[in-house]
Amino acid sequence: MSGTLVVTGAGGFLGWHVRVLAHALQMPEPVIVGRDDFRDPNRLVGKLNGVDRVLHLAGVNRGAPQEVTAGNIEPAQALALAVRQCPTPPKTVVFANSIQAGNGSPYGDSKAAAADILVQATQWTGSTFADLRLPNLFGEHGRPHYNSVVATFCRLLADGAVPQVHEDRDLELLHATDAAALLLGPGGPWDAQPVRRTVKQLAERLHRFATCYRTGEIPDLASRFDVRLFNTYRSYCFPGHYPLPLEGHADDRGELIEAVKVRGGGGQTFCSTTRPGAIRGEHYHLAKVERFMVLRGEADICLRRVLHNDVVRFRVSGTEPVVVDMPTMWAHNITNIGDGELLTLFWANQTFNSARPDTYPEKVSP
Predict the structure, then answer these.
(1) Are residues 141 and 197 both part of a single domain?
(2) Would you say residue 219 lies in a domain?
(3) Which are the contacts of 161, defined by CB distance < 8 A and separation ≥ 6?
(4) Helix (H, G, I), strand (E, B) or coil at 318
(5) Are residues 356 and 302 part of one domain?
(6) Are 161 and 207 within 8 A, CB to CB?
(7) Are residues 148 and 195 in the same domain?
(8) Using one digit for the tens of pLDDT, what is the confidence trace for 307-345?
(9) Residues whose CB falls within 8 Å of the CB of residue 122, separated by 6 or more in sequence, listed in order
(10) Strands laid side by side in the 279-284 sheet
(11) Is the same domain home to 180 and 299?
(12) In terms of DSSP bridges, do strands 128-134 and 92-98 run parallel, antiparallel, or are they unpaired?
């Protein structure tokens, strides 16, 4: 898609994933509608007038019943009023609704009411309205005890605790980037089909991931869902769990170090040399698992979460072998800071596909 994109709730979990995907697809920078805009009808009209697509993501998931109800209905009312007052109404309004809409809970009923408010407004203006009923979303950097049970389990496991399942039930799950693709409607190569798992199955799978990964091993990533679930877990490990130390095995012949051990999978391994002062990388991935290991020389590995400013830096050396795994949706690079040649080993969980490389240019320095 092209043209002006407006996003409400851009600072939230889903909002960040939407903006990252839009950024990766080189769409125009979205216009952000914040809380102050909702309080000022004229400002809100100014941001909506004549735009191509409005993504309404703002809302409240948890809290006191009155807070949840107001947090979903009031933004919809403000948005609907502004759409009606636009001299040139938005062409399309997309509402990030929930499969829980109308289920009798404050959240479900307020989401259903918000959809009705937006339906009436867009019918009146002639705008296209898309009511996108999303299942339970999970993904990198979700808020524990708020966005999803996956975020809560990942946080507990990254902190060394074990999740407890008090009430098992079926969940319909969708990664937030897949939800972002549905909201943006780019027609990209995303399989946005939800996956069903029980809470107990999630806890067990994530526990296996964590137990394996604590040793530096890569768990069996048998499916697309497993890759995205593992990447979600890894986001809670970064940066405190890195670099990952490696155990060496030495004898009179020399030294052996196991750089990558993958349970039930392969991927692609390659090496590169880098001249003093040169930089490699300057990109990010949406789903690829990637590992760096310096074999000879001195290097800085730098990373920055996409659409954020703070840079995380690791100084590594071939004399003390460690690995650093690149978190998804973090721009990263490696710089030779030594006087000699830098030799680096790289591993990725998938072989390179030039048609779908999952590599998006982005400088680490903001």
Answers:
(1) yes
(2) no
(3) none
(4) coil
(5) yes
(6) no
(7) yes
(8) 999 999 999 999 998 999 999 999 999 999 999 999 999
(9) 83, 89, 93, 128, 129
(10) 311-317, 298-305, 330-336, 279-284, 360-361
(11) no
(12) parallel
